[in-house]
Specification:
Layout (H helix, E strand, L loop, with lengths): L2 E6 L3 H14 L3 E7 L2 H11 L3 E5 L7 H11 L4 E6 L3 H9 L3 E4 L4 H17 L4 H13 L12 E6 L2 E6 L3 E7 L2 E6 L2 E5 L3 H5 L7 E5 L2 E4 L3 E6 L5 E5 L5 E4 L1 H4 L6
Parallel strand pairs: 1-2, 1-3, 3-4, 4-5
Antiparallel strand pairs: 6-7, 8-9, 8-12, 9-10, 11-12, 13-14, 14-15
Helix pairs in contact: 2-3, 3-6
């Protein structure tokens, strides 16, 4: 059976190790994408519609759970294999839900067993979306994606020759700017010498949401979420005139809000 797969893992060495294992133990599997974060995974899965997605649970910002929750809308045919470090609550949830998972570091024996289960399940039909949603709810109740450290409360950013202290509650949104990040508040814009991806690791996920590969928004600053005539997502802010674009795959993250 010819299958396409995507691997999403934020740790480079672990991602490359899993890719190498898949190429060695499952040579007929065609790897069509590798992603280092959930934002990339969302966009690539929506574009490629792979048969399989190997998703690390604890990616910064958009997690593997977030990506899996979006699959019924962006790629219903994609079967999920979760990749996780040892977490007994998560493992119990996977086994109760009869879902496929790999425990880090991934052993050859486990990957081969997972391959056989996946092939049998795919031959039986499409992924069970209801079963996946039940699993994701259990994982959410266990709070498996919460960080061990409290979220950031303030940042320092450059504005010309000045260095400003900015409270996170005053930030409207962050925008990727080459290797740096632009911080936008009601008062204007400043430059933060931290890439967007690193920023995701320290922001409060309950308040800040990634809506585009290059944009993170403070949801308390959002006045409305809508779609334009072509179906593209848009965010209107409470205190700024600009309208922010939401990538099509990211619109699924607003489902149920």
């Amino acid at each position: 059976m010819q299958l396409d797969a995507l691997v999403a893992e934020d740790e480079d060495l672990l991602r490359q190790s899993l890719v190498d294992q898949l190429q060695r133990l499952w040579p007929e599997l065609r790897l069509v994408g590798e992603c280092e974060d959930g934002a990339c995974a969302l966009e690539r899965i929506a574009e490629l519609k792979p048969d399989l997605a190997f998703l690390d649970i604890r990616m910064p910002g958009i997690t593997g759970i977030d990506v899996a929750r979006a699959l019924p809308e962006i790629s219903p045919r994609t079967h999920v294999v979760f990749v996780t470090a040892y977490d007994q609550y998560a493992i119990d949830a996977f086994e109760q839900g009869a879902m496929d998972y790999l425990l880090k570091p991934v052993s050859d024996e486990r990957l081969l067993a997972t391959r056989e289960r996946i092939l049998a399940r795919l031959q039986a039909g499409r992924p069970d979306s209801a079963m996946l949603e039940q699993l994701l709810q259990r994982l959410g109740q266990g709070n498996t994606t919460s960080a061990n450290t409290p979220p950031l409360a303030w940042i320092t950013a450059s504005n010309g020759r000045d260095t400003q202290l900015i409270m996170l509650e005053d930030v409207l949104y962050f925008r990727a700017d080459s290797k740096y990040t632009t911080v936008v508040t009601e008062q204007g814009e400043s430059l933060l010498r931290t890439p967007l991806r690193e920023l995701l690791e320290v922001l409060d996920p309950q308040r800040f949401r990634q809506v585009h590969r290059s944009t993170i928004v403070n949801m308390k600053a959002v006045a409305a979420v809508s779609r334009d005539d072509s179906g593209r997502g848009q965010l209107r802010l409470k205190h700024r005139a600009e309208v922010l674009s939401v990538s099509q795959p990211f619109m699924s993250l607003f489902r149920g809000m």
